[in-house]
Write a structure and sequence with these properties.
The protein is built from 14 helices and 8 strands. The chain is mostly helical and about 525 residues long.
Length: about 525
């Protein structure tokens, strides 16, 4: 019984297993068929998409090929049209040139016929003139022969006697004319010169100012001096560094002294001090700011003064740099005479004198106003102010006569224009007028003596001469005791000693002359 039950159970398990296997196989086959169908569907879709993409790409390529074909066709047609137009134009030009050449050939043929006719005409006239000349020469020779028989002289002898007589008469008349002209000039030259100079001086009037190398800044009380000096002197050092002048704060009541050779810097320092004292804020940063603003204002004022001066003088066409230098003259003095007023006076004197002499007054006035511009050139230069002024005038395209007058007014170069001596004379008149310059005769002579004595103190110096109002010092040395190398060092040593021990305006040229003389006697 138990075995039957076991068999039944085992049989049921086998049946269940078979049913399960069959069911699994059926399910697997059904799933596989579904996946195979899905794969076929995806493959078909991919194929369709690929065919569609290929078709689109084919269409795009066809369109691009058509567009490129149309573009190339258009470019080819345009290029062809251009070449066709050029060919047509060239054909027209060739036709025109061919017509012009034909016309030229025809004109040349007509001219050849005209020239041939003219040549024949000239040949006929030449033959006629030749015959007439031969007849005239024959008649002239006959007349000369008759005259020679009558005068018992040949033609050459008669010609020489006539020429000698005319020469003698001309010499006599010329001598008498020159003598009378010289006598008249000698009688009237001095009188006319005095008249021109006196009238020129009397017709010129100008204001004059006396300026030194020192400016005085007035203050209300001495407490301000402490603020200007600052802690440990930092304010006054900053002010001196910014302006380039020396500021002297001493026991002088209610005054501060500003010292410096450059009057523009002194004016900047004075105005900057005035603004700082009014503001009350005095420290290095504020000092630099105020000095910078003041310098800009002074530069603008210089340009304004220059423009106003040239307008007042009626001078036009000056270069802006020359106008600016004219404005700088207002702050420059020469021997105590304000340089701008001096130049204005010289310009008026020159214009008046040129007018009296019948010369160009505009050029004379221009040269007179510019004759001292070399003194206000802001850069350092070893040239004399006259030569420097001439170079500046040439640089800024001034008239050659004006340039020569500027360079020659102290005889540094040769005078090549009639304006040059006029500028020199008017400069001397303006400077030598009593009261124009503060330097008295005694101090002037003493300065020249000191200059000569200083040079004579060196060994080997035989003679020394101060010339050109102390602007040049000529030193003659003993050639036996001083060599050429030592002569060069001597000029440098003298210049250094003058710079250290003397005060003078402008510059002094030191010329050392070493002359070797060999003397022998024939007895």
């Amino acid at each position: 019984m138990s075995n039957s039950l076991t068999f039944i159970i085992l049989l049921s398990d086998i049946i269940a297993l078979g049913v399960g296997v069959f069911a699994g196989k059926y399910i697997f086959k059904k799933s596989f068929d579904q996946k195979e169908k899905d794969a076929q569907d995806r493959a078909s879709e991919i194929i369709r998409n690929a065919e569609q993409s290929a078709e689109n790409i084919k269409k795009d390529r066809i369109l691009e090929a058509k567009e490129k074909y149309l573009r190339l066709k258009t470019e080819f047609e345009e290029e062809s049209n251009k070449k066709r137009v050029i060919l047509q134009t060239n054909e027209q030009k060739l036709k025109q040139r061919e017509q012009s050449l034909q016309q030229t050939v025809e004109q040349n043929k007509r001219r050849e016929h005209e020239l041939e006719a003219l040549k024949n005409n000239l040949n006929g006239q030449l033959e006629t003139a030749t015959k007439k000349r031969e007849e005239a020469e024959k008649m002239l020779s006959q007349q000369v022969s008759q005259l020679e028989k009558l005068a018992n002289l040949t033609a050459d002898q008669a010609r020489e006697q006539l020429v000698d007589a005319l020469k003698a008469e001309a010499d006599t008349r010329a001598g008498s004319y020159v003598k009378s002209a010289m006598e008249e000039a000698r009688l009237t030259a001095t009188k006319e010169a005095k008249k021109i100079v006196i009238e020129t001086i009397q017709r010129t009037a100008a204001e004059h100012a006396i300026e030194n190398c020192v400016s005085v800044f007035n203050i209300e009380n001495d407490d301000i001096k402490g603020k200007i000096i600052g802690r440990e002197g930092r304010n006054i050092r900053a002010l001196e560094a910014a302006t380039g002048v020396e500021i002297i704060v001493d026991d002088t009541p209610e005054a501060i002294v500003i010292s410096g050779f450059d009057p523009v810097r002194r004016e900047i320092a004075r105005l900057a001090l005035h603004r700082l004292v009014q503001d009350g804020r005095i420290h290095p940063a504020r000092i630099e700011e105020v000095v910078a603003k003041t310098r800009k204002n002074i530069d603008d004022e210089i340009v304004e003064i220059g423009e106003r001066t040239v307008i007042d003088m009626g001078i036009h066409g000056l270069h802006p740099e020359l106008v600016k230098m004219i404005g700088r003259m207002r702050f420059r003095s020469s021997y105590g005479q304000n340089l701008l007023q001096h130049s204005r006076e010289v310009a008026k004197l020159c214009a008046t004198m040129a007018s009296e002499l019948g010369l160009n007054t505009k050029l004379a006035k221009r040269a007179g106003l510019l004759h001292d511009i070399g003194k206000v050139w802001p850069e350092e230069s070893d040239l004399p102010h006259a030569i420097l002024g001439m170079e500046l005038a040439k640089k800024f395209k001034e008239n050659p006569e004006v340039c020569n007058a500027i360079g020659a007014h102290h005889d540094e170069i040769e005078m090549t224009s009639i304006l040059s001596p006029i500028i020199q004379v008017c400069d001397a008149i303006s400077g030598s007028r009593p009261g124009a310059r503060r330097e008295m005769m005694e101090s002037y002579i003493q300065r020249l003596r000191d200059l000569e004595n200083m040079a004579m103190s060196f060994d080997g110096v035989e003679k020394c001469y101060a010339i050109q109002a102390g602007r040049e010092l000529r030193v003659i040395i003993d050639a036996d005791n001083v060599s050429d190398e030592k002569a060069g060092m001597l000029s440098f040593d003298i210049s250094q000693k003058i710079e250290k021990e003397m005060q003078y305006p402008g510059q002094i040229k030191i010329t050392v002359i070493r002359e070797m003389r060999s003397v022998a006697y024939a007895r």
